[in-house]
Write a structure and sequence with these properties.
Elements lengths: L3 H11 L6 E3 L9 E2 L3 E2 L9 E2 L3 E5 L6 E8 L13 E5 L9 E5 L3 E3 L4 E4 L8 E2 L10 E3 L3 E2 L2 H9 L6 E3 L3 E7 L3 E2 L10 E2 L2 H11 L3 E9 L2 H12 L5 E5 L10 H7 L3 E6 L2 E2 L3 E7 L2 E6 L3 H20 L7 E5 L11 E11 L2 E6 L16 E5 L9 E5 L4
Parallel strand pairs: 6-7, 15-18, 15-19, 16-17, 19-23, 21-25, 24-26
Antiparallel strand pairs: 1-14, 2-13, 3-12, 4-11, 5-7, 5-8, 6-10, 9-10, 20-22, 22-23, 24-28, 25-26, 25-27, 27-28
Helix pairs in contact: 1-6, 3-6
Cofactor: Mg(2+)
Family: Belongs to the MoeA family.
Enzyme class: transferase
Amino acid sequence: MTTVNQVFAQIDSLTPQPGETEAISLTQAMHRVLREPAMTSEDQPPFDRSSTDGYLVRADEPAKKVRLISTHSPGQSAPPLPPAGSAIRILTGSALPKHAGLIMQEDTRPAGADFIELLKKPDPTLIRLQGSHSRKGSILLPAPSLLQPGSITLLASLGITQPKVSRLPRVVHLVTGEELVDPNQNPAHGQIRDCNSILIRTLLTSFSATLVTQQRVGDDRKLFRQACRLSLATQPDILLLSGASSVGDHDHAGSVLEELGFTILLRQVSVRPGKPFILAQNNNTLAFGLPGNPLSHFVCFHLFVRRALLRLSGLPPPPFLSATLIPGVTITANPRETWWPCHLGSDEGSLTAQPLPWRDSSDLSSLAQTNGLLRVPAGQEARSPCEVLPTIPW
């Protein structure tokens, strides 16, 4: 069987370049991937300005009584330097002339009508000098970068209101299984609630993709083929098939994909959970046949589908973290590489991983506490230090 690392390499080779770009507004930019570096079109700050409320004087003005001659507000051009023995009232953010001196309001006191007494000499650190943050042409945000509130705010400050970002990968999700019913229904005997649909929908929200279509298609081969064919007409980047990827009587994914022009690249992965896994390609569409059990779904998405989504967006694959194994369930050696649900935490600044119990790949009870997948090499027991793939931003 194909190893996990071999699947990683194959996905990387299938997505050598990120997808197309588009310009969007800043209000749409959250969690999008910036594809052009953000550069300053002017010095930052663009002029000398005050960092405090206070008084503008000459840089060599001694501590003494001076005349207050005017008030200067933010948004106005810098005033000329006041004559020796005089001061101008200044508010935070106001533009300042070159060679200015600045006195904090707290370091003065009234000294009669139109006069104040300077209790200290001017403090040059109170002036935010032009270009002290960055110079014109500096790159303040490299590409690719995942845009978050802070970086979006930075773009706004630079006047970049239509950033060029990766187009969101287009995903189609088809769910097989005649036994599945909607979660808001009470299942009859022999039926179960469909949780793979909401699992995929929420995971795609977390990793920025457009879910073009999501449909429950049962087990009928003809209907399954028709749903796949119609889905491909929407030109998805990724076709996700839940179930039907093994070798049972109703597992039609492989043969239907071949009929629709896909090349099957692999049918099994040496991984636990998630062994029956299909990877296929047809021109610019990748198809992933995920095992039907929800825990296998969760693992295969984070190992493989997530990797493809990130690469299509222009981001590197997620990093693996090193953690200390702490007591939890016992993980025995298995011929297949195991990715065990775990809870990542910290102890005195060190990352820890606690394995969570699961009975089989249909057992969802551990997922509520899962924020990482603990990697256990084939034929080995889990031991410290261990390798962990976070399943939430870390």
